[in-house]
Specification:
CATH architecture of the largest domain: 2-Layer Sandwich
Radius of gyration: 20 Å
Number of domains: 3
CATH superfamily of the largest domain: Metalloproteases ("zincins"), catalytic domain
Number of strands: 12
Number of helices: 5
Strand content: 25-35%
Distance between the termini: 26 Å
Shape: globular
CATH class of the largest domain: Alpha Beta
């Protein structure tokens, strides 16, 4: 994935070639930084433009970090629904004589056990941390399983696949072959998880978002557009936790 430097900050971006007269820069919470350039603008010229615009781009990214979305954060009370792999499981909270909180998915619902003398603020704070840890552990296993299937199809082998907290991106493929995935993706439907995985794996073969890149994505996932649209419409909803 191409980058520009702004001081000590590395700004990742994707660019698309279009039939247009000027360079367009789009920045949002779900897709991050996207550049749309005319065919006659060279990579070096584009780089010069982005370096000039870097202060503005960085400012917009910082503003996005402060955005309070309309998505309601989970309160971690009994009856609430928690997402995992595109499904929503009801939460049941039990107050017991225990020292700390725990949560697990069991028999079709999330079961949480918390100390009986904890306040709701303590319950919400600790259960959220426990759930994120649970997502990272169990979701990572699912991601690795599915990634192996698509690695075989595409004939690629990333140096590593890691889950990270990324507020503006669903995935990143570095020039060294490391793939970083947003842990929140484990809340999305499996077909959407597949799209994010394939998207980054294809970057191991085609770094840029050109016609060859999208043809390869489509040949691997013929209906990827539906998953891409799902992320555009519903991606922000996955920020209900964390």
């Amino acid at each position: 994935m191409p980058t520009i430097n702004f001081g000590t900050t590395i700004i990742y971006y994707n660019y698309f070639i279009q039939n247009r007269k000027d360079v367009k820069i789009s920045i949002d919470l779900v897709n991050g930084v996207e550049i749309y350039k005319p065919r006659n603008v060279s990579k070096s010229k584009l780089n010069d433009i982005l370096i000039q615009k870097a202060p503005w781009i960085n400012q917009k990214l910082e503003e996005l970090n402060e955005v309070k979305t309309s998505v309601q954060q989970k309160e971690f009370v009994s009856g609430e629904k928690l997402p995992y792999l595109g499904r929503h499981y009801r939460l049941k909270v039990f107050k017991e004589p225990v020292k700390t909180a725990s949560i697990q998915l069991k028999q079709g619902r999330f079961i949480a056990v918390v100390p009986h003398d904890w306040t709701q603020y303590q319950i919400q704070d600790l259960l959220e941390q426990q759930l994120i840890a649970w997502y990272r552990q169990h979701g990572f296993k699912k991601i690795i399983e599915r990634a192996k299937d698509y690695q075989a199809i595409l004939g690629v082998e990333p140096r590593s696949i890691q889950l990270r907290t990324q507020h503006r991106r669903w995935g990143t493929c570095t020039p060294n072959g490391d793939i970083y995935l947003n842990w929140r993706m484990v809340m999305a439907p499996v077909r959407v998880i597949d799209y994010i995985i394939v998207h980054e794996l294809v970057h191991l073969l085609v770094p840029q978002h050109n016609d060859k890149f999208w043809r390869l994505v489509k040949s691997t996932l013929p209906h990827y557009e539906h998953s891409k649209e799902w992320l555009r419409v519903h991606g922000v909803e996955l920020h209900c936790i964390g």
